Amino acid sequence: MVGNQEFFPGIGQDQATDFDQGIEAPEGELHLRFFVASGIEFALPAIGVSQVLEYAPDRINPMPNVSPLLLGTVNIRGRVVWVGDLGQFLGEAPPVNTDRAEISIIAIEDQGMMLGLAVEQIGVMAWLDSSQLNVSRNSSDSMAPFIKGEWIMEDSEPLKLLDQVNILRSARWAS
Fold first, then answer.
1. pLDDT tens-digit readout, 18-54
2. 51: left (phi over 0), alpha (psi -120 to 50) or beta
3. How far apart are CA 31 and CA 123, in angstroms?
4. Residue 154 CB partners (closer than 8 Å, separation 6+)
5. Type and span of the H or E element at 43
6. Please, is 135 exposed, middle or buried when counting C-beta atoms within 10 Å of its C-beta (0-12, 13-18, 19+)?
7. 94-116: b or e for each residue (b if 16 or more CB lie within 10 Å)?
8. What is the DSSP string of 93-162?
9. Per the confidence metrics, is the pTM higher than 0.85?
């Protein structure tokens, strides 16, 4: 399709060939990178992310008598969805900052279940090669069940890959 001259009017054959050769297919799978309040960077497979949203704190409806990990509920396309503090869920000390104009929420979904994960900052979408994934060596005991592995990144801390299905289905949200 890219090499089809009909899509490049006014471009000669030599120029189209150069254009054709300049396109490289990305390696790996697409992931969403983000940070929790403690500053640790994580990634989730894009296929498990339903949406990335920004909500004003007053639009998150607090609920009585629930786990302190849960901030409340939001309405996402007509569905009532629980929102939890991902950093605290993973055992990180500082809670997500709710004293700001908007809170970043990553909605994850699996088999009809949806959960919003409140995070400190959304990063970028990145193509990451799963064959370069290493076993996570320095994850806390509370974090380890939810880590699939980590990538060693140049000039930064390892990037930890989360298992969104284990997070979504964890009994920890109820305690």
1. 455 566 667 789 999 999 999 999 999 999 999 999 9
2. beta
3. 10
4. none
5. strand 41-45
6. exposed
7. ebbeeeeeebbbbbbbeeeebbb
8. SSPP--SSS-EEEEEEEETTEEEEEEESEEEEEEEE-GGG-B---S--TTTGGGEEEEEPPTTS--EEEE
9. no
